[in-house]
C-alpha cells in the first residue's frame, strides 16, 4: 500500500499477512490515519472481508514504523491480476482470450465475484464501515475462488444516529 509493505509470515503456527505501516515523512497525519483506519474492521468476521487477527503499535525493530497489523493470509492474487492478466500463472488459455494470452473472465466467474463483493460491502455497511477505496487491486481472491475485500486504509466508521448526508465529502481512495 501507500504507507507500508505486506509480508507473508507465520503467527502462532498459522500463515498470516503482516502489514508494516511506515511513518510517512511527507504526510505524517495521513499515514497515522491510514493505520487506524485499517483497524475499523478489527472485530468483524465475514467470509468476504479480510480478517484482522492482531495489531500492535509497538515495533522495536524499526523507528520508522507506526505499527503492525496481522491479517488472515488470503494469497496474493487480486481481482486486478485476474482482470488485467498481470499474473499469468493465474489463468492461461488459448480460447476466449481477453488479450495478452489470458482467458477472459467467464460470465459465471464475473457473477460469483460480483456477488461476493456486494455481500462483503453490504456487511461492512451494516456495521457502519465505508471502504472508500474499493477497486480490483483491493479485492483478494482465495485459492477457492472467493473474493475478500481488503486494504481498509482509507475506510471510515460512521457514527450511529447521524444522518448519512453528514458524510458527503471529497475524500477518495487511490487509483491503480
TrEMBL record:
Keyword Nucleotide-binding: yes
Top class in the EC scheme: transferase
The Protein kinase domain, residue ranges: 1-176
Catalytically driven reaction(s): L-seryl-[protein] + ATP = O-phospho-L-seryl-[protein] + ADP + H(+); L-threonyl-[protein] + ATP = O-phospho-L-threonyl-[protein] + ADP + H(+)
Record GO terms (molecular function): ATP binding; protein serine/threonine kinase activity
EC number: 2.7.11.1
Keywords of this entry: ATP-binding, Kinase, Nucleotide-binding, Serine/threonine-protein kinase, Transferase
Pfam families (alphabetical): Pkinase
Keyword Transferase part of the UniProt annotation: yes
Protein name (record): Serine/threonine-protein kinase mos
Organism this protein belongs to: Crossoptilon crossoptilon (White-eared pheasant)
Amino acid at each position: 500500500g501507500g504507507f507500508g509493505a505486506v509480508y507473508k509470515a507465520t503467527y502462532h503456527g498459522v500463515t498470516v499477512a503482516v502489514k508494516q505501516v511506515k511513518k510517512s515523512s511527507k504526510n505524517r497525519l495521513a499515514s497515522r490515519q491510514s493505520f487506524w483506519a485499517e483497524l475499523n474492521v478489527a472485530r468483524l468476521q465475514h467470509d468476504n472481508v479480510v480478517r484482522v487477527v492482531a495489531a500492535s503499535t509497538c515495533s522495536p525493530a524499526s523507528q520508522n514504523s507506526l505499527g503492525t497489523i496481522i491479517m488472515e493470509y488470503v494469497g496474493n492474487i487480486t481481482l486486478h491480476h485476474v482482470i488485467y492478466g498481470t499474473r499469468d500463472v493465474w489463468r492461461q488459455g488459448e480460447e476466449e482470450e481477453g488479450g495478452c494470452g489470458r482467458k477472459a473472465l467467464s460470465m459465471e466467474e464475473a457473477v460469483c465475484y460480483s456477488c461476493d463483493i456486494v455481500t462483503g460491502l453490504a456487511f461492512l455497511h451494516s456495521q457502519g464501515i465505508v471502504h472508500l477505496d474499493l477497486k480490483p487491486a483491493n479485492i483478494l481472491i482465495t485459492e477457492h475462488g472467493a473474493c475478500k475485500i481488503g486494504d481498509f486504509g482509507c475506510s471510515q466508521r460512521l457514527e450511529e444516529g447521524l444522518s448519512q448526508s453528514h458524510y458527503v465529502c471529497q475524500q477518495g481512495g487511490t487509483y491503480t
